[in-house]
């Protein structure tokens, strides 16, 4: 228990030190740090699921991934069909729905052993993607 308290104290001190550094940092430094963090997170996400380029990670909790890209809906649909096909997954065509502003794709046979559901929504210049491993 004592080791946990010591670790907690050190983590708090490290967080406060980092926060202090960021307060005195320029906007460019902060943008670079955010870019570096996003690059690391995207690399980790791509190890688990396919993600188009360019992409920003909005959220990742367990088997739920929320992403954002500037690619149009049709290109994102094509991307996921191609990527999951190359991974050996089969699309559940009967459960696929595609409209001019949204799409839902479902795949069996992901290397994780789980069913993959991809929801895609086009919002103006951004496309939101939710990938869920069920």
Looking at CATH, which topology of the largest domain would you report? TATA-Binding Protein
Report Rg: 19 Å
Q: Roughly what percent helix?
A: 40-55%
Poorly predicted residue ranges:
1-14
Tally of distinct domains: 2
Sheet with most strands: 7 strands, antiparallel
Query: What gross morphology would you assign?
Result: globular
- Average pLDDT taken over every residue: 84
| CATH top level label of the largest domain | Alpha Beta
Structural class: alpha+beta
Walk me through this protein's architecture:
There is one protein chain. This protein is α+β, with helices and mostly antiparallel strands. The chain has 2 domains: 1-48; 50-134, Kinase associated domain 1, KA1 (TATA-Binding Protein, 2-Layer Sandwich), CATH 3.30.310. 43% of the residues lie in helices and 29% in strands. The chain is built from 3 helices and 7 strands. It has helices at 2-23, 27-48, 73-86; strands at 56-61, 64-69, 90-91, 97-98, 102-108, 116-123, 126-133. Strands 1, 2, 3, 4, 5, 6 and 7 form a 7-stranded antiparallel β-sheet that branches. A hairpin with a 2-residue loop joins β1 and β2. The protein starts with a helix and ends with a strand. 15% of the residues are buried.
